[in-house]
Specification:
The chain is of the alpha+beta class. The protein has a single domain, classed as Alpha-Beta Plaits (2-Layer Sandwich). Helix 3 crosses helix 4.
Amino acid sequence: MNEFAFVALGSNLGDRQAYLESGLAALAALAGVEVERTSSVYETAPVGYPDQPFFLNAAAALRTTLSPEELLQGLQEIEARHQRQRQIHWGPRTLDLDLLLHGQRTAATATLQLPHPRMLERCFVLAPLCEIAPDLCHPCTGRPLSAYCRELACQDQLHRAGALRFSA
């Protein structure tokens, strides 16, 4: 089945922009994945563990034939190739790729939660996602994601820092 999926990208170590762009290129190179759209890049303060550099964040809309589990595995392999270290929960990272949505699917397993469990609380996820999919609704609540973005006053919590340079 060919479905839309949405992925959040983040980086706060090294050349953050280069990590995002390299991660996006690796994502586009996965068999069964086509990158349809990408958001602007946003600079955001860290969440959860404040003693770290600011992040660059973006989102990508994909068309994929991969199952959610296969796509998640691909994302984790890309992170590993980009020297992602998981030493501090919500700590600094070279590249973070989070599977936010995969069609209208829901899942709650030890390794996969769909929709992403904290996406509705995070402006650094909602703002880029709403930029590329303004009419997208949450699969469980049916509410537009833009409504959550407005309620969190996301426009006041981050700013655009540029664009992703990417060619499919």
